[in-house]
Every structure is written in structure tokens, then in C-alpha cells.
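User: Quick sanity check before I run a bigger batch. Here is a single chain. Can you write out its predicted 3D structure?
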Amino acid sequence: MSFPNPFKRMFAEPKTDRRQMERFYSELPATLYAESSDPVECTLLDYSDLGARLKMPDKRHFPDMFKLYVPETDMTYVAEVRRRNGDEAGLFFISGEPGMKPWQGRR
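Assistant: Done. Predicted structure follows.
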């Protein structure tokens, strides 16, 4: 015989992580390249295969779309901002190419 558990109603079940991909924490230097501004040095706080969290050195506005170059991995990503929070932004990677510098065209 099963008895109802009154504690289930009192205490919420722990939330599960909704992320689709494993996230890796880092503090890698990166450079943001947008069409309408000069390159900006920033910090890659964490990343996954689908996106990343980026921190600006000051409270600059993140453009909606830009190229992000990460020298540590020699990768350039085309990124779209999905979330803004002060000097941080959550990014979605549209594409990524190894070895291509943002200021170069496709090889």
C-alpha cells in the first residue's frame, strides 16, 4: 500500500540542469569584432559546443551579432547574443572555424 507524501508538496524537487551540452569554465582572453566598432578585448567565462558566456572589461553594449576570436584555441566564432546582464552576455554560436582570423575572409 502506498501513502501520499505530504513533504512533496512542501519542498520543491531540485531543478535539473536544462543545458543540452556540457559547460566548461574558463577565463580565456578573447577579442570581439563587430562591424560598427573597434576590436574589444574581453574574457570568455565559460563555453560549450553551442555557446558561451562573455564578460566585457567595462559596461559596453554588446552588439547583437559579432565575430569572437579566442587565441588560446585559434578559433573564430560567429556569435549571436541571447542574453545580456550588465557586463556579461550569453552567446549562441552560429558557426566556428579553426585557424580563421576575424579580419580574414574564408580561405
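The beta strands are 24-33, 40-47, 51-55, 65-70, 75-85, 88-98.

User: Great, the batch can go ahead then.
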